[in-house]
Design goal:
alpha+beta; 9-stranded mixed beta sheet; 5-stranded parallel beta sheet; 23 helices; Gryzun; TPC11
Length: 1260
């Protein structure tokens, strides 16, 4: 928009003049009103009072100027302005301000008369018009011009909608009246001056007080007096600012003032709109001040006046920020301009008015597009832009000088750039750069939009062309650059005779040039494309600047391909202008980072490569010459006719003194390499110490016309147990052949292993030599065997090609991958080669296995299962089946599922003071022969050696893995260790399982008396004497053997771990400790007697016992040796012993005197502190008869017991009888359960007694 008058293209805002405040200069320099709108009718508004100065005045002026909206975005979003206000244009002036004249000066008597004519008497009544009206003789558009930018400047800069004066309001009791009178006088004088000017400008006064109303109560009365004397409205014409206001309060005050002034400004421009509409509605042309006498006598037509009034109405609508109304009036103006009887059709194309009308049409179209963007109508704005371009092209082709000249392309470029600038000034939210998001209140993260969708006015299903959508500014700047390039091409086609300056050309040639070329907003041909030696228009800078602006827009949205394309266009423009240094600065980063290489757009890659190569030759950059020569050798890129690519001599034309010898390092991932390197192993697996055939294939993809390339060396780097393989160039080491040197061949090589040169370099490397000269389209294959010294995975990871000449060094590396095609193995020899596909996924990776071991490992005494807690001795036998003697060590690990290990001891080290772990001291033993582990020593060929480990089985059933690894080497090759591993399963099971019966017994000892004093005996802290209630219990253990063979039980015992509840316990066995055999699945019983006694009579808690059963046993098959015996511990559930409640114990035994008579004693115990009474009721039964009380009451003292006997005579034999004695505790009203003792059963009915056939009782 720089080519157009600023007043034409700027967005119009209401003008407010701030007078008499501060000393800050204006925001922009504006010409004096007499230079723009001359005339004697100008009105000067002045005041005798000094301006308000000071810090507060400057701060207040800054706040007002901050409300200026000249730099605000061109959109109607409320968020762009504080409080939803419209934009304003503010001018800060002093006390003097001049309003332009309303009417032009009357013409002089000499105007319109020729020299020598008689003097005419002045006409007293002239019809005067505006100084810039087509009707005034002094106007620049008199008599037939439509519009001038001066009219817009008049209303934007010189005629304010509001004139705001600032005065100091002091409070001095002695001078208040004088000061108030001065204010009244000044305010009335300024109002009178404004009324005299015939402008409708509103007048506003702001008083800055030095005291508050609280400090000077008479301020309100003084203000009321001033209002009455001046007629100012207190709501929107008179404002009062108290002193001591903060910056925030000043900002709030300014906002309130602007809010009050906004209706006044809108009403002012609405009045101007009504006045222009009334003049348009008259339908007649006003008479001019004087008839035109110079030039053409044609006056402005009705269509011209219609365009003028519509432009005024649209501009006033913009002042009011009513952009929809402005757009409507601008549309009417354009229709009138391009109509059949419009201004363009009635104006000659050679006339200056033609260019003025084109300038006005461009301005109206620009403002129309801006209005549509303001109203968020993106697609409509684009269509307006397209329709106007089509109309203008048609007009220029019909009535102008055509569109096939540089003037039209300049207009196309300018019109596209205007669209980009309008989009940038509009700051549409759809084109905001959202990465990174700076707004913390953003709800959604979206990608940066490239174009705006159509507005709702267009149906959803309507098909629109892509160019009908509003794209971001970079798109339009690219269009502008394209047209600027075509403008340069057309300018360069101008004949030399038309490029001669007018002073050096004949008049006919100048006339022909004026009628041929369009000069609208462009220089003449001799400036557009000057002859050599003359200065003219800089097309290159114009194109590159536009491209750079477009690049920034595309780059911000991540459109990297377009960034690269535009950068290339900018470089081509520099090259065309022979500015090679600037082109080189663009092309080198583009060449390094362009995406076209990966996407295989070879035409663009070739274009960039050749352009960079040309620039490098001009700027003498040897490194760039080498890299571009290397890439341009590739046949996928285009070549130039007459240029033979030769990498080896590309720098021979440069002097070595000035540039030295550069070293160029490239990566095949970043450039298009003319040579490719492939590596392959012949097999997917190999063994240590065995030769493995390998291949390196170098293929040339260079142009057939290019020179061969001689490599200095080829390097293949590996990951694994080998470092690298290197081939050096040596033509003397090449085998003689009869085939041509340019033919593909397979060369057999023998590599030499290179010893490490330092301690850090532990991996071996292989080196060989051959002729490394590669011709175009040639494949050279080098086949050689490789030996590996260690086992593991080996992968070829990277290849490096080096070219070394007298002038430069080149290093090109590339990653070796198998992605894509299957690996290839080249077969054949010097006569010819052909590829053979390998039937596997990767040819660059191989698994090196250890040398196959021939040592055997056996476990001669391994059993299927073992038992917990037993001591084991396991023999390990190794058998050397190698062809020669070996030195070996053993490594043993016992691994469980829970990742725990078992400790073991080598039998040969059994005398050592501490046990040996599998990793403890083996390293020390094996260090004698350089191998880690338990030293076995030298083993002769076909010899056997046995080693024994001893360990104890775990205490819990579990599974373990026994891992035995023999690590050895043959004596002839100590550097290659060989290993053999044997894994055996060790299953440990529990040999026994047990169940338990806990049976009450009657304690034979009398209970302690509650009424006797207990003697604790001598005091001994280490001994505990119990004097409480005693109870006897029987624990019967039933042991079952789960072993698969017979075992021998030596002994059993109870281990008492804890006694809970304030008691002591004594355990005694009820069996003899003799060896007893137990067969598999056999069940045996052992009984233990438990004596429980409370510590004292006051102990009322229940007791509990924590115990375990220990069984000492051995295998029956083993020798009688105490060391072979194992002790297994079985857990016993916690045994609870109630002792604080009454209980009933039943004891039955046969009568010694009467056959088949059974004595049944019921012992009632009262361990409580209460006197209890029990009711006994023996129920009759058909199974037996009894003697004893049927019903009875039994009284028990506290801490006492008593027995009741019944004689039972069974009526059955060989069966269980169930005497049912019902015992009820009267005190607690509780029925006691009868507990059976040894030899009795208990069910839900009561205790049961077994009656033998012969009579008496027995156990069953």
């Amino acid at each position: 928009m720089d080519a157009y008058p600023p007043d034409y293209v700027a967005h119009n805002l209401p003008l407010i003049v701030v007078s008499g405040l501060g000393s800050t200069p204006e925001l922009e320099s504006i010409p004096a009103v007499h230079d723009v709108l001359p005339g004697r009718g100008a009105t000067t508004i002045s005041s005798e009072l000094p301006p308000v100065t000071g810090e507060r005045a400057d701060q207040l002026l800054d706040e007002f100027l901050n409300a200026d909206g000249r730099d605000a975005p061109w959109n109607g979003r409320p968020g762009n302005r504080r409080g939803g206000l419209i934009g304003f244009r503010l001018r800060a002036v002093g006390r003097d301000f001049t309003l332009p004249p309303q009417k032009a000066d009357p013409p002089q008597a000499s105007d319109g008369t020729s020299p020598g004519s008689p003097t005419i008497t002045p006409i007293p009544n002239w019809i005067l018009h505006s100084p810039i009206s087509p009707l005034s003789p002094g106007s620049p558009i008199f008599p037939d011009g439509v519009m001038t930018p001066l009219w817009v400047a008049k209303h934007q800069h010189y005629v304010p909608s509001v004139f705001m004066s600032f005065f100091s309001f002091t409070s001095d009791p002695n001078r208040n009246s004088l000061h108030d009178n001065q204010l009244k006088t000044e305010i009335n004088n300024i109002r009178g001056q404004l009324q005299k000017s015939d402008y409708k400008t509103r007048y506003v006064v702001v008083l800055l007080s030095d005291k508050t109303i609280l400090e000077a109560p008479d301020i309100e009365e003084r203000l009321a007096t001033i209002r009455r004397a001046t007629g100012l409205d207190p709501k929107n014409s008179l404002f009062f600012l108290p002193p001591n206001t903060s910056r925030v309060e000043l900002s709030s005050f300014v906002h309130s003032v602007m809010t009050a002034l906004q209706p006044l400004c809108v009403e002012y421009y609405r009045d101007l709109t009504k006045h222009a509409r009334r003049k348009k509605g008259r339908g007649q042309i006003p008479p001019p001040t004087a008839p035109p006498t110079k030039g053409t006598s044609q006056t402005l037509s009705n269509q011209g006046w219609g365009v003028r009034y519509d432009f005024k109405l649209g501009t006033f609508a913009e002042f009011r920020q009513e952009m929809d109304a402005a757009q409507r009036h601008y549309g009417f103006a354009l229709d009138t301009l391009f109509g059949p009887d419009g201004v363009f059709e009635t104006t000659a194309s050679w006339s200056p008015r033609w260019d003025e009308t084109r300038l006005l049409a461009d301005t109206i179209a620009l403002r129309s597009v801006r209005c549509q963007l303001w109203n968020n109508l993106p697609t409509s704005a684009v269509q307006t832009w397209l329709h106007y371009r089509a109309k203008m092209r048609d007009l220029v082709d019909r009535r102008g000088k055509g569109s096939a000249n540089y003037g039209w392309e300049a207009w196309e470029s300018r019109w596209a750039k205007i669209m980009a600038q309008l989009i940038q000034r509009a700051e549409l939210p759809i084109f905001a750069i959202m990465d990174p998001i700076k707004d913390a209140n953003a709800l959604l993260e979206r990608a940066n939009m490239l174009f705006s969708p159509a507005e709702r006015a267009f149906p959803v299903g309507e098909r629109l062309s892509p160019w009908n959508f509003l794209h971001h500014a970079g798109y339009w700047l690219r269009l502008s650059a394209d047209h600027a390039t075509r403008r340069r091409i057309l300018a360069e086609d101008i004949p030399e005779e038309d490029r001669t300056p007018p002073g050096l050309s004949p008049a006919t040639q100048v006339a022909h040039r004026y009628g041929t070329y369009d000069h609208y907003l462009v220089p003449e041909p001799h400036v557009e494309c000057p002859l050599p030696g003359n200065e003219g228009f800089d097309h290159c800078s114009e194109i590159v600047d536009t491209l750079n602006q477009s690049i920034s827009e595309y780059y911000a949205r991540g459109q990297q391909r377009m960034v690269d394309q535009l950068s290339l266009n900018a470089a081509k423009s520099f090259i065309h202008a022979r500015r090679y240094g600037e082109a080189f600065n663009i092309l080198r980063p583009l060449w390094e980072g362009m995406s076209w290489r990966k996407e295989r757009w070879w035409a663009l890659v070739s274009e960039v490569g050749w352009a960079l190569h040309e620039c490098a030759l001009q700027v003498h950059d040897p490194e760039t010459i080498v890299v571009t020569e290397w890439e341009l050798l590739s046949k996928v890129l285009k070549t130039k006719s007459g240029y033979r690519l030769n990498l080896m001599t590309c720098l021979n034309s440069f002097p070595i003194e000035g540039f030295g010898k550069p070293t160029v390092v490239l990566s095949a991932e970043d450039v298009t390499s003319c040579l490719s390197v492939c590596f392959a192993f012949s097999e997917s697996e190999g063994h240590v110490g065995e030769p493995l055939p390998s291949q390196i294939a170098v293929t040339s993809r260079a142009h057939s016309s290019s020179a061969p390339i001689t490599l200095s060396n080829i390097l293949i780097q590996f990951k694994g147990c080998i470092s690298e393989i290197q081939l050096l160039h040596d033509i003397t080491n090449t085998q003689p052949t009869t085939t041509p040197a340019k033919s593909s061949s397979n060369i057999k090589l023998t590599l030499e292993e290179s010893t490490p040169t330092s301690r850090s370099e532990q991996k071996p490397r292989w080196v060989g030599s051959s002729d490394l000269t590669v011709y175009p389209d040639q494949t050279k294959v080098f086949t050689f065997p490789v030996f590996f010294r260690e086992a593991g995975d080996v992968t070829a990871v990277r290849s490096t090609l080096e070219v070394e000449t007298d002038r430069f060094d080149l290093v090109c590396s590339s990653a070796i991958t198998d992605i894509g095609d299957m690996p290839v193995w080249w077969t054949g020899g010097q006569a010819g080669i052909k590829p053979k596909r390998l039937n596997r996924d990767s040819g660059t990776a191989i698994k090196i296995l250890p040398k196959p071991p021939k040592m055997e490992i056996r476990l001669p005494n391994l059993l299927e299962q073992y038992y917990t807690d037993e001591s084991l001795a396991l023999d390990i036998e190794i058998h050397n089946k190698e062809e020669e003697d070996t030195e070996a060590v053993l490594e043993v690990r016992l691994l469980g599922r829970s990742k725990d290990t078992l400790e073991f001891l080598w039998a040969s080290q059994e005398g050592s003071p501490q046990a040996e772990l599998d990793t403890a001291s083996e390293d020390d033993d094996g260090s004698q022969i350089g191998l880690p582990g338990h030293l076995v020593g030298q083993v002769a060929r076909n010899a056997k050696r046995t080693e024994t480990i001893k360990f104890k089985a775990p205490s819990e059933p579990s599974d373990y893995a026994l891992e035995i690894k023999v690590l050895y080497h043959v004596l002839s090759d100590r550097d290659i260790p060989i290993s053999k591993t044997l894994i055996a399963d060790l299953i440990f099971v529990g040999p026994f399982e047990a169940s338990y019966d806990f049976i009450a017994r009657v304690h034979p000892d009398p209970w302690p008396s509650f009424f006797e004093v207990q003697d604790d005996g001598p005091s001994n802290a280490s001994s505990v004497v119990a004097h409480g209630v005693a109870q006897k219990w029987q624990l019967k253990a039933k042991i079952a053997s789960f072993a698969e063979e017979a075992l021998v039980i030596h002994d059993m015992g109870l281990n008492l771990h804890a006694v809970h509840g304030g008691a002591v316990c004594t355990i005694s066995k009820e069996f003899l400790s003799v060896d007893a055999d137990i067969a598999p699945q056999e069940l045996q019983e052992r009984s233990f007697c438990l004596d429980m006694r409370k510590l004292n009579l006051e102990e009322r808690r229940s007791s509990a016992l924590d115990m375990s059963l220990s069984i000492t046993w051995r295998r029956k098959s083993s020798s009688i040796d105490e060391s072979q015996a194992a002790t297994s511990t079985l857990a016993i559930p916690r045994l609870h012993v109630p002792s604080s409640e009454p209980r009933v114990l039943a004891t039955a035994y046969p009568s010694p005197s009467v056959t088949s008579l059974i004595h049944l004693d019921y012992t009632l115990e009262n361990p409580t502190m209460h006197f209890l009474t029990f009711e006994l009721n023996m129920e009759a039964s058909e199974e037996f008869g009894f003697s004893g009380p049927k019903l009875r009451a039994l009284h028990l003292l506290p801490m006492s017991r008593q027995s009741v006997r019944y004689n039972i005579l069974p009526l059955v034999s060989g069966a269980w009888i169930t005497p049912q004695l019902r015992v009820v505790d009267r005190y607690f009203n509780k029925t006691l359960k009868v507990l059976g003792t040894e030899g009795m059963r208990v069910d839900k009915k009561g205790v049961m007694i077994w009656v033998d056939i012969e009579g008496g009782t027995g156990e069953r």
